[in-house]
Amino acid sequence: MQSAGCGGDALLLPLTFMLPLAGTLILAFSRGTLGYRASAVVGVGSVGLAALVTALLVSGFDANSPAQVVTLWTWISVGDFQPEIGLALDGLSLTMLGIITGVGFLIHLFAAWYMRGEQGITRFYTYMNLFVFSMVLLVLGDNLLLLFLGWEGVGMCSYLLIGYYYQNSANGWAGFKAFIITRIGDVFLAVGMFLLFARLGTLNIIEILSVAPQVWRAGDPVAELAALLLLGGAVGKSAQLPLHTWLADAMAGPTPVSALIHAATMVTAGVYLIARMHGVFELAPTALYLTGLIGAITLLMAGFAALAQTDIKRVLAYSTMSQIGYMFLALGVGAFDAAVFHLMTHAFFKALLFLSAGAVIVSCHHEQDMRRLGGLWRKLPLAYLGFVVGGAALVALPLVTAGFYSKDEILWQALAADQSGLLVAGLVGAFLTSLYTLRLIVGTFHGDMQSDGARQAKAGQGLAHGLPLVVLALLSTFLGAWITPPLSGVLPASPGEGVEAGHTALELVASATALIGLGLGGWLFVFKRDWLAQITRQGLGAGLWAWWRLAWGFDIAFDWLFVRPWRGLVHVLRGDMFDACFRSIAQALRLVHIGLSRAQTGRLRSYAATMVFGATLILLSLVLVL
Taking Cα atoms as reference points, which of 260, 286, 449 lies closest to residue 371? Predict the structure, then answer.
C-alpha cells in the first residue's frame, strides 16, 4: 500500500468501504442463521463504524492540502494500461463520504424499526451494506475504472433492493426496469471512458483533469463528445429526462431503501460524476448547457407530475427527480459547488421525508394512499414534525431551512451566468414545489381519517424510530446549512463568486414565489378541495390531471416506440428467412443421409448391379458429351 500526503488517513480511508463490505460478508455467509437482532446489529453497526471513521477523517482534514491518495494495489497490468485500486480524498469525496455513511447510518438505524417482523432481514441488510460499500467505492475511486465498478455495484444493489418483496411480480418488474434503464446510461459512460483513455492515455481522474486542457481547446468536438457520453451516464443514474421513468416505480422497495438509494445517494451519483469531471465539461460548453437544459425541463416536468400523485412515496419520488433537476441546472451554469451544496442539503431533508413517510406507512398498516389517510397529525406527532420540517426545507422556506440556502445559491448562480431561461424555470419549479408539498402534508395529516388504517394508527416508539427523525430534522433546518462542503480548490469558481449586485432582490423574489405557492396551495387544498376535485374529474382538467398522473405519458410512449417494435421484431426473427434457409439445408442433408443409409443393404448382388448401372451412366454421359 502506497500513500501520498495521507498520514494516518492511509489506514483510516480503506476502512470506510471495508467495514460495510465486512458486514455484507458476515451477513451473506451466515446463510440466514442470524436472528433479527444480530442481523440488525451487524448491518447497522458496520455502517455506523464507517460513519465514525468518516468523522475522524473530517476532524483531521485540511482543505488547503492537495488530494490525499492511497494506492492499495495495481488492479490490471496490460502494457500502458495499469489501473490501480486507489482511493483519493479531497473536499468533494469527503462531502460525499459524509453523506453516504452519516445519512446512511441513520437510515440503517431506522430500518431496524421499520423492518421489525419482516421475513429475510438478513438478506435486507446484506444488500444495504453492499450498496454502501459500492457507493463509497464510487466516490473514493481515484480512477474512472474503479468509479465504474462502484457505479455498477450500486446499480446491481438497486435492482436487488427495489425488488426486495419479490413475491409480488410487479416489484420484480420495477427492479428490472430500473436495471435496464440505468444500464442504457451505463453504456454511454463506458464508451465515454474508452474515448477518454484513447485520447488522453489515462483513466486516472487527476491526470485527466490535468491533461484534457492540454489536448483539447474549448469547444473541441472530441471534448464535446466525451462530455456528452459522460452526461448520458449521469442522466441514467440520476433519473433525468429522458432516462427518468424508473425512479417512481422504484418506490416498490421498502421505504428505507427509497431513502437510501433514491434520495440520499445513488441518484446523486450522476451529479457527483459531472462535478468530479468538471474539467472535461468546461471544455464542452454545448454539453454543459445541455446539462442545465435537461435539469430545467426535468424539474418542471417532475413538479407537475408530483401534483397529481396520490401515493405519498411517488410524490416524494417525483420531488427527488425535480430537486436533482435543480442540481443539473446548477452544473449547467458552471456552479458546481452550488450543485454539491444542494446535493448535501437535499440528502438531509429528503431522507427525513422518506423516513417520516415510512413511519406513516408502518403505523397505518402499510397504507400509503393519501386518499385513505388524513387526520394523522395528532396520532403521529413525530412523523408530522418530520413532514413539516422536511417539507419546509423542500419548499425552501426563507432563512430557517437548509433548502433555502442551497436552492437560493442555485438561482443566484443562474442569474449571475445570465441564463434567464434557466432562472425562470427554477422559479416556476419552486412554485410547483410549494403546491405539491402542501398538498402532500394536508392530504396525509389533516382533514378526516379516510380508512381503518388511519383510524387505528399508532405512533412508533424506540430509539431506532425517533433518533434518525430528530437528527435529520435538525439538519434540515438552518443548522444543516452551516455545514459548508470544503470544495475550495477542488471545483472551479462559480459565475457569481464575488458578485452581490441583485442577490438580495432575487432572494426576495424566490422567497415570495415559495410563499405565494404555499398560500395558493392552502387555498386550493384546504378551502377549495371539493371544487378542485370536481375540476379534475371532468373535461380538460380531468385529461390534464390524468396526463400529469401518468408523468406526461413517457412510459406509454416508450412502450409504443421501443418495447412493442422490439417484441414484434423478435417475433419475426423467430421464423425469419435465414433460419428457414439453414433449416432447409439441414433437412436436405437429413434426407440424403436417409437415402444413402437405405442403399447399404449388405447384398453383393445389389452392389454389383449398382456399379454396372453407374458405369453405364458414366459411359453414356461421355458419349453424349463427345
Answer: 449
